[in-house]
TrEMBL record:
Gene: SKDI09G1580
PANTHER family listed in its UniProt record: PROTEIN DISULFIDE-ISOMERASE C17H9.14C-RELATED, THIOREDOXIN DOMAIN-CONTAINING PROTEIN 5
InterPro entries named in the record: PDI (IPR051063), Thioredoxin-like_sf (IPR036249), Thioredoxin_CS (IPR017937), Thioredoxin_domain (IPR013766)
Keyword Cell membrane assigned: no
GO function terms (MF aspect): protein disulfide isomerase activity
GO terms of biological process kind: protein folding
Organism of this sequence: Saccharomyces kudriavzevii (strain ATCC MYA-4449 / AS 2.2408 / CBS 8840 / NBRC 1802 / NCYC 2889) (Yeast)
Coiled-coil parts of chain: none
Alphabetical UniProt keywords: Membrane, Signal, Transmembrane, Transmembrane helix
Protein's name in the database: Thioredoxin domain-containing protein
Length: 701
């Protein structure tokens, strides 16, 4: 191509792109799109229900970018919003500067949720898309806390703690547990007070959360208190919350911290809340209740345990329903042989267990092997009852092999599961190794069926690949009560297929161990025949046959009504519907959606789903020869051809996008550099300023 020709072509293409950009940029508001609210209207409008308000300035580039998205969101959600009693509104902060000052708006656009009593929380997801805004509206409209008038008029029960009070608490003066929050403030007396928090974008919303927490934990007789870090800098620095004591940067990223003080303890009495900041009270309440309960090492009886574990488990919950989904870690000892030092290990478990959701610690003065056996037998009842295959039988010998241990030891049971675990503590030393015990606890304390989301997917994928080779994901849809019931049924069927697979897996493990045993016996025999030295024979006899526990399945469910972009995000192609199962090979990043006969995987066909698990993990035990066809996640081949999808989905705009792509091929390097700079600042803070300039310069050339 000659330079001249290339230049002409480029000009031509740029012109088209510019025209398109103009056409898109000047999008007309849809019919009936409301004017921004002024301060009089704001108060009146708010009293009518929940509102998601976009506080914006007509001059900020991000606001301009958001404007068409906001219009589309408003139009698409209008009708549903009427039914859910939640509305998308706007406030122009240049025209209504007083209102925005009253509401403490510090940057644009600031998107916030309000109820008739005022501000609740902020919408902070990026990128801000129609989908994410609508998902936020749906979620918040279903949260009963948001429209609880009693809660809005209620007061926080949290006590203002000065440094001295706090030090006394952690020194053992607390006779009840205290949950304490730490704030970047100096004049927060009542935790509901409207004070000015500096560089803490989340503080205001957390005040409401803290009020909810203080009332919820009070029911369990757990007290709450709050500490002003700016007036107690030494304490906060000692606790590792130095950033709350003084301002160290210009960002708004300081967040309140929370910790629990255990009662009547003179050392190690303070336990930090282990998870990151959340506006949701649930995690904090669970942490406080569970950690305090665990610190008491309560007794449990076998009957209580059976009742809990065999109770019904609901994964998706209807509003107001409670379901047990707990994991019980039981320290089992023999009162005849136990020594007082054996109990010391329990102290060291409190803190690490606070980090694993749903784990409860108990003690019992007998072995739980019989209880374990009853559960395992129950598993065989269920798989035989639900399958037309020949009866499968509980393998007593394999069970004994896995549960042989001395007391004291730990047993683990999960609500809704038949499979239990025993810590292989063959000696006192093993029972005093906190790291080994915690490693074992972490490996097996995964939720029975975990909710899979875009944010935890990578973590699930990398979790203990040695033990869990596959992640089996049941596609479900929450929402209405009827759908919730159907979804729970699907998940229970997936569990049933998993137990059926567990039978094959355990039988195979048993076989492998027997082969190794025979080999060992043979080589001992051989050594004897050769009249080898005695120590050689003894060494061989002492050799342990490792009990490997691999090829287990990690089970999950994906609520596709909440996770619309999941498949695209993780490079899983094709259409996927409720009822289907996707098996993901965690080690190789392959995913499987079809069984050995090319039909969609579903738990409604128990046998074919189990066979899929067997074919992938224990091919020597598979009933069918046909291999499963897998696909690579995020395959480069998908993305190489994805421009075809673009055209397909966007019609003429798709072609224009490809034209843009071609331009970028020519002008790519310089564009990319600028984009990197832009992104660098974008990560810093979402405000008008440096970023505005970068963007303006960009659109000029
Ligand atoms: C807001 O707009 C309404 C209707 O246009 C008007 O009556 C009212 O005076 C305005 N209030 C303020 C504070 O501008
Ligand atoms: C919407 O919420 C408001 C505030 O709680 C309430 O007064 C109103 O009755 C609700 N409207 C509908 C249609 O549910
Ligand atoms: C702590 O000790 C006090 C006084 O000895 C007692 O009344 C209280 O019940 C204890 N608290 C707990 C949680 O054991
Ligand atoms: C737990 O059980 C043991 C043995 O039965 C008993 O000595 C102890 O007092 C019990 N502890 C509690 C807190 O009930
Ligand atoms: C399997 O069988 C049991 C009875 O043993 C029954 O309660 C259950 O609903 C059946 N289905 C599944 C999916 O477990």
């Amino acid at each position: 191509m000659t330079t001249q020709l290339r230049r002409n072509l480029l000009t031509f293409l740029s012109c088209i792109t510019l025209l398109v950009a103009l056409a898109v940029g000047a999008a007309e508001p849809p019919k009936g799109f409301p004017e921004p609210l002024n301060s009089t209207q704001f108060k009146e409008e708010l009293s009518k229900g929940l509102h998601i308000v976009d506080f914006y300035s007509p001059y900020c580039p991000h606001c301009k970018h958001l404007a068409p998205v906001w219009m589309e969101t408003w139009e698409e959600f209008k009708e549903e919003g009427n039914k859910l009693n939640i509305t998308f509104s706007q406030v122009n902060c240049i025209e209504s500067a007083d209102l925005c000052a009253d509401e403490n708006i510090e940057f644009f656009p600031d998107i916030r949720l309000y109820n008739p009593s005022g501000y609740i929380k902020s919408f902070t997801e990026t990128p801000r898309t129609k989908e994410s805004l609508i998902a936020f509206a749906r979620r918040e409209s279903m949260d009963p806390d948001n429209l609880d008038a009693d809660l809005d008029s209620a007061l926080s029960l949290s006590q203002d703690l000065e440094g001295f009070d706090f030090l006394e608490l952690i020194a053992g003066k607390a006779t009840r547990p205290h949950l304490i929050s730490f704030w970047p403030a100096k004049d927060l007396r009542d935790s509901d007070d409207l004070v000015n928090f500096e560089n803490c974008a989340r503080c205001r919303e957390f005040q409401r959360t803290w009020k909810i927490i203080s009332r919820q934990v009070n029911v369990e007789d757990i007290r709450t208190g709050h500490v002003n870090c700016e007036s107690n800098p030494t304490i906060c620095e000692e606790l590792g919350f130095a950033e709350l004591a003084k301002i160290t940067n210009h960002r708004g990223d300081r967040e309140p911290k929370v910790a629990l003080v255990l009662p009547n303890k003179t050392s190690n009495s303070l336990i930090d809340y282990p998870n990151g900041y959340s506006v949701n009270s649930k995690g904090y309440v669970d942490f406080a209740k569970r950690t305090f309960a665990n610190s008491q090492f309560p007794n449990i009886t076998e009957e209580e345990l059976r009742k809990k574990v065999r109770g019904s488990v609901e994964f998706l919950q209807e509003r107001g329903s409670v379901s047990n989904n707990d994991i019980h870690l039981v320290f089992a000892y023999d009162p005849e042989t136990v020594v007082i030092e054996d109990f010391d290990i329990l102290q060291y478990l409190i803190e690490p267990l606070s980090k694993i959701p749903n784990v409860y610690l108990y003690q019992i003065d007998k072995s739980l092997i019989d209880t374990s056996r009853i559960f395992f037998e129950g598993m065989y009842e269920v798989i035989n009852h639900n399958s037309s295959e020949a009866q499968k039988r509980f393998n007593e010998e394999y069970f004994a092999m896995n549960t042989v241990t001395q007391l004291p030891t730990f047993f683990m049971f999960k609500d809704g599961d038949f499979i239990s675990h025993v810590y292989p503590g063959y000696s006192t030393t093993e029972m005093r190794k906190i790291d080994a015990i915690m490693k074992w606890v972490e490996r097996y304390s995964t939720p029975l069926v975990a909710e899979v989301t875009s944010s935890n997917f990578r973590e699930l994928m990398s979790f203990e690949p040695e033990t869990y080779s596959n992640l089996a994901v049941q596609l479900v849809s929450g929402g209405k009560n009827k759908q919730i019931k159907g979804s729970n049924t699907l998940i229970h069927k997936l569990l049933c297929a998993n137990w059926d697979y567990e039978h094959t897996r355990m039988e195979n493990n048993f076989e492998q161990i027997n082969i190794k045993r025979t080999k060992k016996a043979d080589s001992i025999k051989l050594l004897r025949e050769k009249q080898a030295p005695a120590d050689k024979i003894v060494n061989k006899m002492r050799e342990e046959i490792p009990h490997v526990d691999h090829n287990k399945l990690l089970l999950g469910y994906l609520d596709i009504s909440k996770e619309k972009n999941f498949f695209k995000k993780f490079g899983i192609t094709g259409d996927h519907k409720v009822g289907e199962v996707i098996i993901i090979d965690k080690l190789n990043n392959y995913y499987y959606t079809k069984d050995n006969f090319g039909n969609n995987l579903t738990p409604n066909n128990l046998q074919s789903l189990r066979e899929a698990f067997v074919s992938l993990n224990i091919p020597s035990k598979a009933l069918y020869n046909a291999k499963l066809g897998g696909r690579l996640m995020n395959s480069p081949f998908h993305s190489a051809f994805s421009f075809l999808d673009i055209v397909h989905q966007n019609g003429i705009f798709g072609y224009l996008l490809i034209v843009l792509l071609i331009i970028m091929l020519f002008k790519g390097p310089s564009f990319c550099r600028r984009y990197r700079i832009m992104k660098h600042y974008k990560g810093k803070r979402d405000v008008v300023g440096i970023l505005g300039n970068v963007e303006k310069k960009q659109s000029q050339d």
